[in-house]
Queue: 4 jobs
Job 1
Amino acid sequence: MKQTLQTLKGFRDIFPEEKRQRDFVLNKVREVFNVFGFEPIETPTLEYADLLLGKYGAEAEKLVYTFEDRGGRKIGLRYDQTVPTARILAQYRYNLPKFFRRYQIQNVFRADKPQKGRYREFTHCDIDIFGAQSALADAEILACIYQVYKNIGFKQIQLKINDRQTLFSTLEKFATDKVSVASLIQSVDKLDKQKIETVVRELAAKGLDQKQAESTIAQIQQTQPSKELSNIINLAEKLGVASNSIQLTPTLARGLDYYTGMIFEVIIPEYGSGSCGGGGRYDNLINELGGVEIPAVGFALGFARTVEAAIKLGLIPEVKNSAQVLVTVFDKKTRNYSLQVTKKLRKSGVKTEIYPEFDNLGKQLKLANQKNIPWVIIAGSDEVSTNTVALKDMESGEQKSVSLGDLTKLIK
């Protein structure tokens, strides 16, 4: 039976042009993370399932990939990078500095419904500050993420911000035996994607009556920023965040259960396809995992959406083929000379590809055109005898004889 050749739903292949676009954005992200003093770490793709489960809330937990390995252990794919890093904090707490600042750029996995800009395997770029409870740590996260998007080139950056504690205190009076505060939060968190009427119906279906459901949303919409949140915003502005980029959003809930304080999301208004990432303060998670109290605040950047937004807005410069030059190879007699030219160019930092087989000139030029390589170096028997090469400009078609000594300078 012939095998079906296709990717799993929600997973994808990434080809060179897109990979270069992603690398451009990734380098811009990493630049800012380093400037802000965050240190890189990585964690395993697989963790014990009991580490991952019970941390994200009932709805999010359905999206965690879990299975048994050959040893009968129940394990899971990394859902995010926060919980595995919390494990690191608990496991290695005596080996890490008091105020540990880390960034992590790896893929995460969620059994989610695929849609535009959302896949089941995708890259997260996280930053976190551990060990600090002060508003300054929260402001640092806001300032860093704002500068990340500025560094990529976005002009309009919106930081939607709220206080989880304010949200809890507002919703507590509406909780019942049938519907918990956490369940109310998960419904309220959908207000940026769904109409009020739809969320009201969902709250009613969970056990609130119509008036209670409407009153729940109305009271949330009228809440004012807490003293702590106002302080965070003030410090973030002093660290360089434009005041018109911070938007108090009382209905913002961030569905994950582990958030305890400030929460926020990044929106690119010109992109118009939802949040490009989110984060906030989570002071209890590490204690739940390892029995040690380490406050924390962080952010997870939605990398795929950020790249898509940058492409849509024309922020990524056109990046052609990696090679600047293709060196021809015709036969055994000229091959060593082609290798010598290739070695010289690469030693000088010129990105050089050598044709891997013996072939006629037409086919070698065709490959250069197909791969958008701007220069071709023709090294035939005539060039070998005169210690030169023929340098062909593939855009203009111009070709001239060049000595090996002048070659690198002309290409650069």
Job 2
Amino acid sequence: MSEPHEIEGQVYWSHDEGHAYGHFHTYDAFLLPGMAAPRKLHLLLPRHAPAGVRLPVLYFNDGNTTFWPGGLAMQSWNVAQTLSEPELLGSLPPHIVVAVCPVDRDRDYTDVEWAPERSCCGLREYCRELSLIKGFVDSHYPAASESRKNTIVGSSHGGTAAFFIATRLPQLFGTAVMMSPAFWVATGYDYAIEGSPLAEAGLILEVAELLRSPTQRPRFWLDWGMVHHGGFHNEVIERLGMLRGRELQALLVQHYGYHLGQDLWVEEDPEGAHDEASWGRRFARLLPVILGVGASEQSLDSAR
């Protein structure tokens, strides 16, 4: 049964849906001073964790699709089911998942004007709000505060936002997971189709010094799907995701000194489409890498 509780004026519902991995706290209207509007948050907490140990945390953009069907396509990553699979349940260290739902997705996850009549440019504000959310989680849950134990996860626009967040808040997030990221929005949609170089985008240039620093920069998981048929999202969006993803990989390795298998992991998914089912499937594969279980260059040889 769901039960209401309160932490410093923030009301949440504690509910257990029978997943082997853990149970949920859901905040329907989480609002701290400094936040522009309430947000829904879902926290998945492990059932079994050592007492007194601060746990790694994975923060998800598009939190309305992390555990249950939502978003435009009404699909889900099914993260709770994935974490409850026996092969993962017995091999991964316990961690917390925080799913942050968007208020205005187009605005929350973009920093430049990118398409006519679409909202934009609220990503810096979202960064600030996410830092407030993380502060709350660090204070009231057994969450590790250090950046190397905090990961920001996103797909499509949320994947581009994950890169932005980790490079603007490297002291908070040590890793960004970018699945089928929409880096084509970095210079505007029309320019991306015409092939405007990502290297010249403010998204990259603003943090060039950070990206050159092996001791300060975040780690990245970058992937995309190779299914480029069956509708606009695959034929155009996922194809652009592939093109920009390859461009970003080359830029990070050749210009900024990232090393595959050490601070950059890249996967081309031959069966990947631009949908939650593909992202959820790849999420199961990246977890051991992100959480430091078997994270080696050789472990991803077949994924390149």
Job 3
Amino acid sequence: MTTLHLIFNQAGLNACLRVRAVDEPVILMGNAVYHHAQTEGLKALHEDCALRGVTTADVVTREELVDLTVAHCPIVSWAN
């Protein structure tokens, strides 16, 4: 299995992007959704985008996030 990366802020995103493999999924959550345009291939949590007025086509729902957590190991939270 590959690692799932959950990003919560800019510092976490910067740290994650230095070490993650290209094929590992990255989900922006909380205030990290403001950085969705910074790097291609990142997805943002739909509910957090909606709460913050951020528009992006690359979103996942909470249900899809649950499926991703089941399908990946380990799961790393980045909130430096």
Job 4
Amino acid sequence: MPAVVLIGAQWGDEGKGKITDFLAEQADLVVRYQGGSNAGHTVVVGDQEFRLHLVPSGILYAKTVCVIGNGVVVDPQLLIEEIDGLEARGVSVQNLLISGRAQILMPYHKRIDELEEERRGDYKIGTTKRGIGPAYMDKIGRVGLRMVDLMHKDVFASKLKRIVEEKNHLFKQVYGVPGFDYEQLLEDHLRYAERLRPHVTDTSVVIDHAIVAGKKVLFEGAQGTLLDIDHGTYPYVTSSHPIAGGACVGAGVGPTRISRVVGVAKAYTTRVGEGPFPTELFDELGNRIRQRGREYGTTTGRPRRCGWLDVVILRYAARVNGLDQIAITKLDVLDDLPHIKICTGYRYNGEVLRELPESLEALAGCEPIYETLEGWQQDITGVTRFEDLPVNAQRYLRRIEELTGTPISLVAVGPKRDQTIVRGEVY
């Protein structure tokens, strides 16, 4: 029963797209279980770069079935644009399936997201303004629309009419801006329905049958552990559950079906948006890492904040996800550094903390405690075996294993598929 959950072990942007693509070659199914078009997974195949947002990263393998699970909020317009872009480049989406239970992200969700972020001023969250939060709010408020509704014209039309009336009242009375035209929204979405209809099904059944049949299923998370709505650095988080437990809810499978959890982490730390970041580098070194690692958001293009590796965060991710393994990405970005630091704990109010504090204010006041290791200062992008890495690179990885208590099974030394060192079995 080889069902593997792949999660981000930091604040997202860890390189999950590359690792998912690498593992998808052996997978029968790749399942995206949460998030929306705010996610961005970059996959490099040869000289081609693919930027995926809603379509699972396994789509580049013709034999792999790719599933958008019920926990995802689907923007039909953007999904169709993404499908068109893939097909224009010769990538088939015939094996793409969409859960009928997945919530639909509507244009009014994006408008609300933009208006609310503007109203927050200095207290903004740093959202992508893709409408993700408002879509999940409607889901939890039980006033959302689902893909299964979109497949039935009369049902969708009736529900949409009532919702648009309520939203337009909100836009007029609260925000003082124009609302949306019901007829235009209906026309647009009925057109989307016909395009997406062949892909919509009960994906929970498909996934369960595959696992029972002994097929290899890879669950792909978006964002990262520290952006989880419950376990992240709230309120600077996303609106869903990127952690491993979210895979069960967002894909419709029981926890006993999961056989392994793999956490993806960069060899350093980055985050996008607002919120505390204890190991952030504000100097030229931080900018150097950003430039060398091409640390700009796949979805927004925003520059990512960069800092040293924080194993307090990694230990936290190992605990709340139940990590069996870690995949380290972008090790090559550190190639030219003479010394490399690892944050092993925090100082806060005269105390040494080894665990991530629950309080955001406490985290903001934490001073990182560093351990310094010697760098390797040589190009590792062509290395294919762990034993052939420079000794100091091996020491760095082994120290991460010691500090997290979790073995490293994969090491990425570049963006391409063949720039991946395999140290252990994943499936």
